[in-house]
Amino acid sequence: MINQIKGLHHVTSLASDARENNAFFTNVLGLRRVKKTVNFDAPDVYHLYYGDEAGSPGTVMTYFPFPNAGRGRKGVGEVGRTAFSIPTGTSQAWLDRFATFEVTGVAQDTRFGEKRVLFDGPDGDQFALVESDDDRAPWTGNGVSQEMGIRGFHSADMRLQQAAMSSELLQFMGYEKLDTQDNVTRFVVPGGNDANIIDIEEIPTAGYAAQGAGSVHHLAFAVDNRARQLEVREALLDTGYQVTPVIDRDYFYAIYFRTPGGVLFEVATNEPGFDRDEDTAHLGEALKLPSQHEHLRARLEGLLQPLGD
């Protein structure tokens, strides 16, 4: 069994409009844009990162906004809903805020005894705010108060036709089965970070998802450093998973593998962090390019959509 994984590192999704995406996460949700860079494989597409003040592991939602991308199709074999942590008793404040911004898909429910506010993002992305006792400090620079600010990720939902093999994988990765409610089983990393919950929703009769705008591209799990990452990679290879070599993503090192249920997993290092090329006070302000794309700067600055901030 792997014991190096601490919980979520980041969640990466697809979008159709960079400006709209930026406005939603910074103005509506009050997160900080901690990095404005580009897709390594498609440098004419942004890679935008939103999180807490420093972009701490377990707080960062990231997006590839492909201009005019078609909507994804919901189904199994994907991450269905990404959940953020909010302070206990603040659901009504968020409901009021969402009404002001005309956020769609707003509803309330309770899962495993925790109150949730459900809502949609600009591309039909499905999210939740979960009331929990979470002492992480929120980013308050975008008009959301300390008292109600998002603390980081709470959890992510995987929607699968069959849960057994993915449940086995999560337990191999150090997660423990905590509880089951209806068709949802909760897994948690004991002693992990504050984003240490994965829920598996089993829907045997559902059709398979198709990726597009509003779809989660991959879930990234956090390890402390490259040494721990290599240990995880070796353990996964020994178990029969096809795992990529280590890839330098500038702000973390990454490996990727596909799960039995079809969801793409990444294991990312907590090092070196988002302040490696910008002072913490100015994160996310300038366009930062991977070194292999720096020669394209003039063209990309003229091509990439202004974010309006």
UniProtKB/TrEMBL annotation:
Domain VOC: 7-132, 152-270
Gene3D superfamilies, per database record: 2,3-Dihydroxybiphenyl 1,2-Dioxygenase, domain 1
Pfam families for the chain: Glyoxalase
Domain of life where this protein originates: Bacteria
InterPro entries to which the protein is assigned, alphabetical: Extradiol_RC_dioxygenase, Glyas_Bleomycin-R_OHBP_Dase, Glyas_Fos-R_dOase_dom, VOC_core
Descriptive protein name: Glyoxalase family protein
Origin species: Yoonia rosea
